Every structure is written in structure tokens, then in C-alpha cells.
Amino acid sequence: MKKLEIFEPELCASDGMCGLSADHEIMRIDKVVEVLQANLYDINRYVQPEDRQKFMDNDTVVKFVREKGNNALPVILLDGAIVMDGKYPTNDEIAQWLEVPNMADLMK
What we know:
Mean pLDDT is 91; it is low at 13-17. This protein has one domain (3-7, 20-47, 56-78, 86-106). By secondary structure, the protein is an alpha+beta fold. The protein is built from five helices and four strands. It is globular and about 40 Å long.
């Protein structure tokens, strides 16, 4: 089974405000992860600073953040290799990576 990991920046500013466009993408990714996990796909999200240890435990992510900085997040790993950075994948991209044949039906 393929494993997809999404390493994200802190999602809101220190004053608690979030961007509207970011909210839409975050809500979409929340739902995709929830639905796929419920259907036993191996997909996880890690958000700074709450999941700091997950960031630190992953050499690929540590190297990525050192080279590109936190502003380049999110970074998406498939089976430990970076497949995307700087934006969230589409539902179709996630379905392709995880070999989900019925993604549209699952998302209903």
C-alpha cells in the first residue's frame, strides 16, 4: 500500500486569522484525509508546530525545510519521496498517487 504524507506550515497567523483561500483548501484536504483514512488508505497530515516531532523525524522534510524554508510548505511525500511542494494536491492527484479507483464516489 502506498503512503502519502502532507507536511504543512502553521495554518493561521498568531492572531488567529486565516486566509479565505487557505481555508477552502484546508477544509478540502481535511475531508479528503478523513474519508481516505476511514477507507483504510495510508494518508496523514502533519502541521507545524503541533507535529514538530514528525517534521524532525523525517530527514527528507528536514532537508527540504533547511533548503527552501517554511514558506515553501506544504510538502507532499509519497512513500518517503517528495512528489509536490508549495501547494496542496488536487483530489485527482491524491487518487492517482494512492491508487484510489473510486475517489469521486468516496467524496460524495
